[in-house]
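Record type: ASSEMBLY
Status: queued
Input:
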Amino acid sequence: MVSRYCPTTLAEALAVRNEEKVVPFGGGTDLMISPKEGVTYLFVHRIAEMKKIYEDDEYIRIGASCTFTEVQFTPLVPKMMRDAISEIAAPAIRNAGTMGGNIGNGSAKADSVLVEYTMGAKLRLASVDGERIIPIEQFYKGRKELDLHDNELIVEILLPKTGTDNYFYQKVGARKALAISRIAFGGIIQMDGNIIKDISVAFGAVANTVLRYREIEKMLIGKTLEEAHALRPTFVKAYDDAMQLTRGRVSAEYRKTVCMNLLNAFLDDKGI
Amino acid sequence: MSIKFTLNFKEVEYTGDPAARLLDVLRNEYKLTGVKCGCKEGECGACAIILDGELVNSCMIAMGRVEGSEVMTIEGYATTKRFEVVSQAYADVSAVQCGFCIPGMVLATEAILAHHPHPTEEDIRYGIAGNICRCTGYNAIVKAIGLAAKAGEGLW
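Status: finished
Output:
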């Protein structure tokens, strides 16, 4: 008999999640580093609803149990996400680690989460009480603090279908492979002729959560590239003022300097 | 809880703790000591196995995760024709030094060739990026993988 802890449908999984204290187990690549004594895992790798990648009218939907490798090699997934994933860890980790796990682990160093912030992704959460869809920025309340109820599961990641092609992504790590991000940067710009229709900028691995400042972004929205260029010093200074970084694995000064360098590289790249 | 899976082409049933590490279970219960324990944190690749056709680190897998899956360790792979070719290629270029990383490295080789029967050097280096050889014999290993692809033409 197949155990209730390896369910094959979402309904079964949510029932177990509602009745018992269980830790959802995606690929295990974070959980197994320091496993907790006496933990009960809920294995979510066989749940069909959480293994699909497809699009509907509104979104490109990625099941939370999809592995990084599955996402990396699915052309439907926006290129920025596939690029970022191709630099995560190494093949054996990407074959096991999952999209939902990267989010649920709650780290600001999660490279796929940085891309989700930059794209303005949403999460579909479910429990026996029903479902809700929330923006990724609201889901992260602090370091390892998530807006996830005890009986909920992360079911899908919802990415925008358009507007993410003109991006800039850079990860700074100690090595090419198997390197946790020291700083990760994502930027997307959407042009409407010579007008900046939308711009988004996010910084990963430098604070308790990924950082994105929508108020600062507004400064450039609706501007021409020339106008944006004239505003560039003010724009960069706004980030410099807003980002009060502390020391992590690297010093606060290093973090700040690299963040500003990457922001400038993004603006250079996009002709601002 | 009983966990049924295929281990080296045979159906098995495991009745221990579903949270136990696959690496420990393979070595201690099934005596498959070709699976090496290097770091227990997914950083070295010495414990790599093939799970449902893909390379994974067995230290990162809890037993519940293998329910309904196919697990192949170096012991199972060693019974295949592909292994013979890979093994010969490693021998031909003296790619093995202390040997500790080799079971994982050989299974990474299988994973590379399964996806890229005619790999470029970049494909090879990307494919073994998670397998650390502390004798640092990478160039010979890269060469061996290229040689295996040629010698085993048609097998992958």
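Annotation: The longest strand of chain B covers residues 3-7.
Annotation: Residues 102-115 of chain B form the longest helix (14 residues).
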